[in-house]
Amino acid sequence: MAEASLSFLGFGVQPPTPSWGILLAEAQEMQILTQMPWMWVPPGIAITITVLAFNFVGDGIRDAVSPKEKYTVV
Questions:
Q1: DSSP 17
Q2: What is the SS3 assignment for 21?
Q3: Is 70 exceeded by the pLDDT of residue 72?
């Protein structure tokens, strides 16, 4: 995720190398956003799924390591 965010800002890998951040950065023009959603929707969905997967795996590991702790909302 750090690589994708740095590539989006222009500090990551250079444009010939494929990256989710580069794909999103190249699709910032209004014409591309409105008329060509296939350029930005798949990388956006891939980033979202990856972030959610890491969060769910982290929650699962936390629950497996300390199953006796109860998490309450105060």
A1: S
A2: helix
A3: no
Measured distance CA(13)–CA(31) in Å, rounded: 25
For residue 53, give the H/E element and its range.
Answer: helix 41-65
Q: What tens digit of pLDDT does each residue of 12-49 get?
A: 777 777 777 777 777 777 777 778 877 778 888 888 89
Please check whether residue 12 is in contact with residue 6, taking contact to mean a CB–CB distance below 8 angstroms: yes
pTM of the model: 0.63
Residue pair 42/26 in contact (Cβ under 8 Å)? The answer is no
Q: What's the one-letter identity of residue 23? A: L
| Domain residue ranges of the chain, discontinuous segments joined by + | 2-65
